[in-house]
């Protein structure tokens, strides 16, 4: 889920949700180049992962606090207030953007997209991001856009505009995908792209802009998120911003998509796996391998355990963050690169694409 951008890690100013998405969208093309050089070593901390994750004493202490239900409820409330206050301090009209989505015709899209026979995995039914219903609610879906936009400026504090912040963050991630594919695919083009955990489609639209000749599919477990994704794409098209190849939206589980084997040149997961337990991450990787054509590229961009910024978060911030991310410990202790190789990916490569995030790529045999 971009899913990532998602409402905690996905926190630019704009007057409307749709206008904000248009402003943040940067139309760029893939250019031949070697793998991007890693960022300066000073973006990585001294540890393999933050002390507030895993079995370290600090992590166990924070987890014990979160396990106290009354205290957890207070943490959720405070975390939500912090998210919104931080976003609005940076010029993001959080409430206005969310209210515009809720007042729109987005509800019709859910009826068109939802697979009512889909069985949700247990881990997905937990509370996420201070929402009791997790990602299965209109409240969560309506707030992804302002949360994502806010993240752009927070991660790129030197950016002078939403468009500049978006270009810096998105282009580094997309260039990492293109560079890996150009280096290891054996000259294979990109005609089909799958965005697993696409959320409201921010990453999907970026992939479609980056690979304009490809058929791009966005897939997510939340019909609420997908409804917003399709609504925003329809608004974009109605304003005259059409595409050569329309985006397809699929309501399915990324671990068992039901899509044909060996049918995609690129499979991307943007800000998805930090929301998953380790068994689900393995399932997503195995499904990505099944879906990729030989020589195809998988890309996972997410929070980096080695990020100096994340390792040095103040105690109050990481406690609130951990209270909204039930699978944080499992994510930060997961050997992603090692598991990818074990599952069968070749040419596994990990680079820091900004001071907070890494992009890990691999090739299907």
From TrEMBL:
GO terms for molecular function: methyltransferase activity. Residues 193-296 form the Methyltransferase domain. Coiled coil: none annotated. It holds the Pfam family Methyltransf_25. It comes from the Eukaryota. This is Methyltransferase domain-containing protein. It comes from Physcomitrium patens (Spreading-leaved earth moss).
């Amino acid at each position: 889920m971009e899913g990532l951008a998602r409402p905690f890690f996905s926190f630019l100013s704009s007057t409307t949700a749709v206008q904000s998405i248009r402003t943040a969208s940067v139309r760029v093309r893939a250019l031949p180049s070697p793998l991007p050089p890693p960022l300066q070593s000073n973006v990585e901390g001294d540890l393999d992962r933050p002390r507030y994750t895993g079995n370290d004493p600090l992590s166990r202490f924070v987890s014990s606090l979160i396990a106290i239900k009354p205290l957890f409820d207070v943490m959720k409330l405070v975390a939500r207030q912090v998210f919104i206050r931080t976003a609005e301090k940076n010029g993001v009209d959080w409430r206005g953007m969310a209210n515009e989505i809720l007042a729109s015709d987005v509800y019709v899209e859910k009826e068109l997209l939802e697979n009512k026979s889909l069985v949700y995995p247990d881990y997905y039914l937990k509370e996420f991001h201070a929402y009791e219903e997790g990602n299965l609610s209109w409240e969560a879906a309506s707030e992804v856009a302002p949360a994502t936009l806010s993240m752009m400026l927070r991660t790129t504090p030197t950016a002078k505009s939403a468009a500049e912040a978006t270009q810096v963050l998105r282009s580094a991630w997309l260039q990492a995908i293109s560079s890996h594919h150009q280096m290891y695919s054996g000259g294979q083009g990109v005609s089909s792209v799958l965005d697993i955990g696409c959320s409201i489609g921010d990453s999907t639209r970026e992939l479609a802009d980056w690979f304009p000749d490809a058929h791009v599919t966005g897939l997510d477990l939340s019909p609420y998120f997908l409804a917003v994704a399709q609504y925003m794409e329809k608004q974009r098209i109605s304003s005259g911003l059409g595409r050569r190849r329309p985006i397809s939206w699929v309501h399915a589980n990324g671990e068992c998509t039901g899509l044909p084997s060996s049918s995609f040149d690129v499979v991307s997961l943007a800000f998805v796996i930090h929301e998953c337990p380790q068994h689900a991450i393995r399932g997503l990787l195995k499904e990505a391998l099944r879906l990729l054509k030989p020589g195809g590229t998988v890309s996972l961009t997410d929070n980096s355990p080695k990020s100096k910024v994340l390792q040095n978060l103040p105690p109050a911030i990481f406690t609130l963050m951990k209270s909204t991310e039930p699978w944080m410990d499992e994510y930060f202790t997961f050997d992603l690169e090692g598991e990818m190789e074990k599952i069968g990916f070749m040419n596994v490569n990990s680079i820091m694409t900004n001071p907070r995030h890494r992009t890990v790529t691999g090739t299907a045999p």
